[in-house]
Amino acid sequence: MIPLKDTIPSERYPIITILLIVVNVSLFFYEISLGQYLPEFVKLAGVVPARFFDSRLYVSQPAAERYFPIFTSLFLHGGWFHLVSNMLYLWVFADNIEDRLGHFRFPIFYLLCGFGASLAHIFANPTSSVPSIGASGAIAGVLGAYFILYPKSRVITLVPVFFFLQIVEIPAFIFLGIWFVMQFLNGVLTLGLGTAQTGGVAWWAHIGGFLSGIVFILLLKGKKHQRRY
Predict the structure, then answer these.
(1) Among 28, 187, 59, CA closest to 121
(2) What is the CATH code of the structural domain delimited by 2-220?
(3) CB neighbourhood size of 22 (10 A)
(4) CB proximity list for 200: less than 8 A, separation 6 or greater
(5) 138-197 pLDDT tens trace
(6) Where are the domains of the chain?
(7) Across the beta sheet with 2-6, what order do the strands follow?
């Protein structure tokens, strides 16, 4: 399922959402410019779970280099599909969360969700030495917040039906519910099988981000009157 747009108009201009997209795209072009030095950069800026559990990997490493990747990894991507799919989800769902939280609280919320996503990935894959990068954990937090705030909204979605593509409107709680169940099932399948140790999708970052989004939106949304959809 590919979300194209939702049916909720924003009252505020989503300046932070747009800024996040610009930063992610700009850093992706920077990654491309690194050429042969890109793997080393990703190793330094990505989340490597084993760094947090094996003291031999960071005995001489400054604390900043050990912990900053939890946040720097949120703005890097592993390819065009990775980037475009993440930015599409961010564009469709984040403007309404920014609208609800405001321009100041939204980036705080976004980084907190990214932090929760990184922690989930780290503890689900404690021996992995594979760097994890991508905004999907933080964006999963946006999806979790949307699930709570706008469950009755409708998501205009491109759905493959056999050999054809069909555009349908799907209630947000169904679209996001299916999305989360898929992440959870795939995450469970990686436990103990080594899949998450050798690369691929960071399913537990998605799960941790989504749940973090639910928790943090309940803490940060305040008492402002909420429109119902």
Answers:
(1) 187
(2) 1.20.1540.10
(3) 11
(4) 190
(5) 999 999 999 999 999 999 998 887 778 889 999 999 999 999 999 999 888 877 654 445
(6) 2-220
(7) 2-6, 154-161, 164-171
E strand or H helix at 123:
helix 80-124
List residues bridging with 154 in a β-sheet. Answer: 171
Would you tell me how many other CB atoms lie within 10 Å of the CB of residue 9?
Answer: 9
* pLDDT tens digit sequence for 103-155: 999 999 999 999 999 999 999 888 888 899 999 999 999 999 999 999 999 99
pTM here?
A: 0.88
Secondary structure (DSSP) of 29-87: HHHHHTGGGHHHHHHHHSB-GGGGT-GGGTTTS-HHHHHTHHHHGGG--SSHHHHHHHH
Decide if 102 contacts 17 (C-beta within 8 A). no
* 3-class state of residue 159 by DSSP: strand
